[in-house]
Amino acid sequence: MSLLGKWLLAPEKSLPPANNPKENYLILIWQHGKHLANRHIKRFSNKMYSPWENCSVQNCILSYEDKDLHQAHAVIFHVQFMLHASNMPLRSRVDQRWIILMDESPMYLLSSSQETSNYDGLFNWTMTYRMNSDVPVPYGRTLKKESINFQYYPWISKPFWKTNMMSSKTKLLAVMISHCDSKNQRLKYVEALKSLLQDRLEIIGHCMNGNSTVCPYHFTKDCSVLSSYKFYLSFENSNCREYITEKVFWNAFHKYAVPIIMGAPLEDCQRLLPPSSYLHVDNFHNANMLVKYLHYLDRDNERYLKYHEWRDNYILLNEHGYFGSASKHYCRVCEALNYNPNTVKVYKKLDNFWNKDRDCISLL
């Protein structure tokens, strides 16, 4: 893990030492700042939120103006919006941090006309959901309650899951999918489950004749109906290291549903998620075995609630900017400028860090 990665999973009060706490930093979002603001500043609303809200540092300024390129301390390049590496600007400062931002898995990072090697030698820091990134921006994270400042998270102490949670769990299983392509054959698995469960599995979205009206806004608006389900299919579009998205942190955990995970390998889930809080498809020989276990838990509330006992000791923080949740992307960059080592670092071979053949499993 990187320095920040270790800190994000440790008690929040244990701040790393700051490099120069009196210095102010300018962060430039190259060319796509206004578009990215919909998620990271506005949270898909009409309201502007401070990117430094509940941030451990407050000494950074954001810019969307390309003219600030030469004076910025850090420049963020969202590589999925880059048509080609030849569109990168010229660099004039060796002390400037060029940061490559990658929110999707390595399977969906670049267009077919690009290769990771096109960006060799350009970037100083990586900014991804993985905890070994120089600027880790996970979709969510797990912390022990003893490390939390309850002033910022007043809802944590509510024992909802012990009192009236079960009264709201009137349905068995749901999945919300609107992107029908994938690298892991998740739709085939959903089809198998649907044939076994029939109307006890509700498909929400535009795939597989799903219900596209109940939650029409996808990730820009909350989907409150998900609170009715005991389980949620947190099926990612690719099976890659640490690729655990809002499908787990929001659609499942935040809705008091037990996630059934396809995506990150089991060992990553064991390391990054609360213990005994989820099911993983790798633990079942096939869809039929999974369905039998779901029926077993559905008949036994005491057994089912075992998958919520983690809530007594852990808290899940949603930090992705979807469904109205807070995005911590720009806060993390400011923290990296304050806490990361000042030594010069360059990714001469980006493929050594971000590699779909090494870090992902393709089932096509």
UniProtKB/TrEMBL annotation:
It is a single-pass type II membrane protein. GO terms for cellular component: Golgi cisterna membrane. Its EC number is 2.4.1.-. Residues 23-140 form the Fucosyltransferase N-terminal domain. Gene3D superfamilies: Glycosyl transferase family 10, C-terminal domain. InterPro entries: Glyco_tran_10_C, Glyco_tran_10_N, Glyco_trans_10, GT10-like_C_sf. Its main location: Golgi. Keywords: Glycoprotein, Glycosyltransferase, Golgi apparatus, Membrane, Signal-anchor, Transferase, Transmembrane, Transmembrane helix. Pathway: Protein modification; protein glycosylation. It is an enzyme of class 2 (transferase). One of its GO terms (molecular function) is fucosyltransferase activity. It is found in: Golgi apparatus, Golgi stack membrane. Residues 167-352 form the Fucosyltransferase C-terminal domain. Belongs to the glycosyltransferase 10 family. This is Fucosyltransferase.
